[in-house]
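To fix ideas, we quote verbatim a fold written out as tokens:
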Amino acid sequence: MKKKPPPEPLLFVDAIEEGHARLVLGEEAFTIPVRLLPRNAREGSWIRLSIGVVPAPASDAAALRKKLARGDPGGPIKL
């Protein structure tokens, strides 16, 4: 028998001030940036928390190094 996944927790949006939202989960409160809230969330809203693990995003460091190297004549740095 497969185990049923736990329900996604519900959080209460207690306050939104200066770009941060105070969320309440049970007896715990914490803050997050407002930009992480759903667009229609307001003070007094209930929101469902759904998160998951994903693979790391591809790094563009190699492309940046290649771009920077194109304009580099080489040799010592002149100040």
User: Anything to note?
Assistant: The mean pLDDT is 88. Residues 7-50 form one domain.
